[in-house]
Amino acid sequence: MKVCFYGNTGHATTALAARNKLPGVQYTACCPSYPGENLNKLHTTAKKLGITLLQYSCLDEMLDAEKPDILVVDNRFAERYPVETKALLAGIHVYADKPIATNLSDLFDLYKTVRETGKHLWAMHTTRYELHFYTVRQLILNGAIGKVRMVNCQKSYRLGTRPDFFKKRETYGGTILWVSIHAIDMIRMVTGKECLSVYSTQSSADNFGNGEMEIIATSTLELEDNILATISTDYYRPANAHSHDDDRLRVVGTEGIIEAARRDGEHEVRLINASNNGFTPIKQLQPPMIFEDFVHTIEGRISGIFSMRETFLNAYTAIRAQESADKREVIRISHPVNFSFD
Amino acid sequence: MKVCFYGNTGHATTALAARNKLPGVQYTACCPSYPGENLNKLHTTAKKLGITLLQYSCLDEMLDAEKPDILVVDNRFAERYPVETKALLAGIHVYADKPIATNLSDLFDLYKTVRETGKHLWAMHTTRYELHFYTVRQLILNGAIGKVRMVNCQKSYRLGTRPDFFKKRETYGGTILWVSIHAIDMIRMVTGKECLSVYSTQSSADNFGNGEMEIIATSTLELEDNILATISTDYYRPANAHSHDDDRLRVVGTEGIIEAARRDGEHEVRLINASNNGFTPIKQLQPPMIFEDFVHTIEGRISGIFSMRETFLNAYTAIRAQESADKREVIRISHPVNFSFD
């Protein structure tokens, strides 16, 4: 399979990272996704793996010349829908950074296109493939905490210097769609349940000159089966903190509580239940890599860790969560959408 | 000053705990606050301090005979208002467990009574007087994290076996009023700001036979100055956890993040800012004891840590937070109530 890259504003290099796991994949070319986009990081990462990416100046030219099997869509966050649609209609599978769409109309149209073309579209929900969060998922699936009742997620990032397109909702999409969506995925991952209502808040105050960008946001979800969940998102992680992120996941069950969080360095998993005291970190399990899993899924080797259905449900939930913050009201979802790909 | 006790369903013994700090205080008597209430724990705690409490069978009899200066009101959580009012009107200061009232009508009437009688009424917001949370407050007041932008609070308790009155809202009052109110106090403490809107969720499912008692609850607050806050409350802390509670406070500021949480045992305070790396716990400061501070306040020796105004504002905010969960809607507070005690 041949892979091309459209932009690199986010996690495109996760496709390259799986190279050694995917001997049948060729990474051939890239092109910028907006005028002046710098693709040096993508080229450097590729070169370290012995790959030279041919750079085109425009998407159509690249697609015509390369005819890739997979397009990595990593452009400005609010501009993915037309590109994803174009690729799918050209018979190309799409590996796009989240969000795959920033409004419901685009999302439902994208769903229609995926159904019609039969091509695969995955969002880069990288958190499912991080050792610690994956370990939490597996332990819960194995009954470590009984029935899940409540989930608390934290996304905290260093702000650093963000590209100019973060300053406008029109190109950035919004912090709930760019950051909190990871937490939405984590919550859906550990509960297996859908959101019935969501309430969010957000603020762009004191955002160090980043225009409309919301620097803090919260969401509260009520899920099926009376499960409650909270999300806290911020870009205020101090510059001299030892890591870019301070992401946390706490899952409260009827028979135990499990958490993944940084304590003094790298993420640990701690579990308190009848047979674990919470003092000894749990040995972490090794998941496959996300792009590896995507390619295997296209080939029919399905792991079940992630899917197109999850991709659409995460985007749907995040869009509704952002709608709540924008309208300052509770959004109720009487019947969870059934994104079906049978 | 003479102190008497009405019931012991909660934190009455915090009044006894300050005994050595208060040589001028005499603890003389107690009486049950509902038929069959067992006061053994109160008597045992008193005896360990060399105090014998005379036990009366009814409140009126105790007040007539003892004429206390302070009544410790620690009865069933939803039944405080008439007792507090009776004591205040009898010229007695009141040290009551939270909540001091469970509806706005009682709360405003209580405010009127306090204003008219000039007596002092404090709720037992013990968290302000815990070393770790007090240390967080002092560091923030000293500018350690710049401007506060977001607060995350967790209240997590072991369920154990709860008295029967927890099973009914009528006597219990509700989990937001009994537990989340501590977090409301923490949020108000570290921001110095009032709540402009609140949204809460709660669930009584899977509560191990505890009737109407909500076993999980969340609240999201928007405060003055675009500050956001979240509260997560649960009674699911596993029985074999090393402590009853796992309470946490995380405060995100423009120049740093500070947290108080249990990591491997007792609460630590960690700070990341320009001069702290978050790896070395911060030395904790020693606050006065809450009842000591209450007595000193009555005597005119005001520390400023807590007050009657805070007592009423916490109750007001908690009642609105519970109203949100009960009505399943966002509660907006266009003008924060000014509980004034000049």
UniProtKB/TrEMBL annotation, chains A, B:
InterPro entries: Gfo/Idh/MocA-like_OxRdtase_N, Gfo/Idh/MocA_oxidoreduct, GFO_IDH_MocA-like_dom, NAD(P)-bd_dom_sf. Residues 134-259 form the GFO/IDH/MocA-like oxidoreductase domain. Residues 39-123 form the Gfo/Idh/MocA-like oxidoreductase N-terminal domain. GO terms for molecular function: nucleotide binding. This is Oxidoreductase domain protein.
